[in-house]
Amino acid sequence: MKLTFQKAALLNGINIVLKAVPSKTTMPILECILIDASTDVIKLTGNDMELGIETKVEGNILEKGKIALDAKLFSEITRKLSDGDSMVTIESDEKYNTTITCDNSVFRIQGKDGDEFSYLPYIEKNKYICLSQFTLKELIRQTIFSISVNDSNKMMTGELFEVNGDSLRVVSLDGHRMAIRKILLKDTYENTKVIVPGKTLNEISKILTGDNEKEVQIYFGANHILFEFDDTIVVSRLIEGEYFKVDQMLSSDYATKISVNKKEFLDCIERASILIRENDKKPIILNIEESKMALKLNSSFGTMNAEILIHKTGQDLMIGFNPKFLIDALRIIDDENVTLYMMNPKSPCFIKDEEETYIYLILPVNFNAAAV
Amino acid sequence: MKLTFQKAALLNGINIVLKAVPSKTTMPILECILIDASTDVIKLTGNDMELGIETKVEGNILEKGKIALDAKLFSEITRKLSDGDSMVTIESDEKYNTTITCDNSVFRIQGKDGDEFSYLPYIEKNKYICLSQFTLKELIRQTIFSISVNDSNKMMTGELFEVNGDSLRVVSLDGHRMAIRKILLKDTYENTKVIVPGKTLNEISKILTGDNEKEVQIYFGANHILFEFDDTIVVSRLIEGEYFKVDQMLSSDYATKISVNKKEFLDCIERASILIRENDKKPIILNIEESKMALKLNSSFGTMNAEILIHKTGQDLMIGFNPKFLIDALRIIDDENVTLYMMNPKSPCFIKDEEETYIYLILPVNFNAAAV
User: Fold this and answer.
1) Which Pfam families does the record match to this protein (chains A, B) (predicted)?
2) Per the CB < 8 Å rule, is B271 touching A106?
3) Which of A2, A328, A359, B136 is the most buried (most CB within 10 A)?
């Protein structure tokens, strides 16, 4: 095999597929990036058997072939080669000895047989939807924080993607809170419901350019999901099983509704969090009165008190939350003002906009009212 | 005690003295920052008994007094308070209960008796020198990398500051290499020789603005050194003992002299380092011939070969180095071309400019010439 590339194009391709190369694996071949130039195009592939990424790279095929190269070494060598305009030549012989040449430097490393590499699974392209890269990236950013990092309930480590005619709903929850984003699609598609691993979404969101003009095709297979955009395809296993009954957790009843400046609210809670060390479960207590809300946090390090002006409808209320959950939700809301709907100190609080394009549900925590 | 500050001024002062607050200590009072407003100025102090920093902060003294506050908590609270223009009020009572107020937020934390805090040692201001903040910062940057990180020889963890009339020489060495920087001072001063701990120099270099117009006074006491600049003083213990005989290690003899483009040389060595993992002691071998130098590195991961054009005087030479030592020295040299002076494969290599404002000595390493 003998190929030439512009360094910048090669590096870009490597950076994309690197997201699917496992850092630890029992199958050494998976620590490699596959360079496949056995046809008329050059494709790079990374695959950890859960998540696989393949991307086309522009280059010249002087001699067809394929080779698997240690991903870490290959990416570091390419990164350190001369400037972006330089040409890189990759050449390998029948014993997989590989030479990488650029300007005045020549690297010789040992490659592996490309045929040993695991191909990406085939996915039928029947069921699909189409949306912009920007929208998908935003959907992920605005929900991913409330998946569970704990593996004990596999379902909670993924996100529900639910297509219903021309609407897509994305849901994540971890047992203490839930994030929901709903968008309208440009077309009507076949209804579908899948659970996508959080890791896949995290990696995809790093590769997406976030361009509003560029589209992503998402194909739904029986056990896999396939994302296709630019010159790249990302294939991931789905999480099997029936997702939680989301609609049963929602409610539009409330006894107290407040509207508050988002930045001011977020700043206050972040400030109060200084008094909490990790694993320290101190709630922030909101005391909602006529036109103001008092915030209080009490820990072994000290006390913080603050007061914010609000618009209130309904009853006065004193309610406590894990400050981290409020911070996570408020950070990703772009609105200037947010509205909170609450029933009582034991029922979930909903942060949502009027059109319900986003709904964040947060369970309150108990606190000793007498000590406040 | 009751004081008011502009947030930005207070935060700036905290960030300066924080550099001297130990992260671990057996004396809890040293984990604090002392606020001393017992006179007409407000001073903040951090002190780990080796290194002490004191800085003046502008503010209003509504009630004189002093208090020691947990450094981490105090700095985090101040950092998270509203914008830089906001006024911060710090008030403490006779039981050291302290209230920090800014806009709509009030923090209450427990302080400690300021009198328990250790004052900075007094240093007589007889012997001193004066140079610009920029120059001191550069001197440190260009030598600090070759102190020893290993504590087994205390002397090697510091730098020699040697005043000789109107010249200042700064030297660091770790047993494998040595860095020397020499500058001319604007005046003539009393001769002196001290060893300053590397930690002190690292911290000072973070506080110095690097301004060419602003000066630093350096005072030399019997056991301490004092740096005075802006509104800040930094006091550090000196390392006791006689420094190594630097001049005996220097030599102006050479058999081979080469001049090479610095960036090209550095890039090549950095690239070759990809093939080395930590603790892997593979040398980079330079094969110097008439008008070119071949570089070669061989490891279990692969081989790199490169070739660079050079200007050579004297004999051909094959010599091996720890690539890290070459990289460290070349990275901080600002010249476009560097000159290397070598005697043979066993004698030190000198990288220096004609005026010897900098001299970097690097010991070569053995290699198996037959395997090259």
Assistant:
1) DNA_pol3_beta, DNA_pol3_beta_2, DNA_pol3_beta_3
2) no
3) B136
